[in-house]
Automatic annotation (TrEMBL):
It comes from Sutcliffiella horikoshii. This is Uncharacterized protein. It comes from the Bacteria.
Length: 75
């Protein structure tokens, strides 16, 4: 996991593997008003639509969990 800063906001980038595909999760959040401002999931390879939906759901859950930990100073 890597955290950088862009235009006064934090940008978190991490990799995970799900359903046999590597996924890059990147999201921007504000510390002043804890909310996710923008995010993207990049799936390596060409999974089927069903697999892509599963991977997207898992990536979104991972992003939300990590965002909560970052904003609650757990990490």
């Amino acid at each position: 996991m890597k955290i950088t800063e862009f235009m006064g906001n934090k940008v978190c980038t991490l990799m995970m593997e799900s359903e046999g595909h590597k996924v890059k999760i990147e999201f921007m959040y504000s510390e002043m008003h804890p909310e996710i401002l923008d995010y993207s999931f990049r799936i390596n390879g060409n999974p089927s639509l069903q697999t892509r939906n599963i991977v997207n759901d898992l990536a979104e859950k991972k992003m939300q969990d990590l965002f909560y930990q970052l904003t609650q100073n757990v990490l």
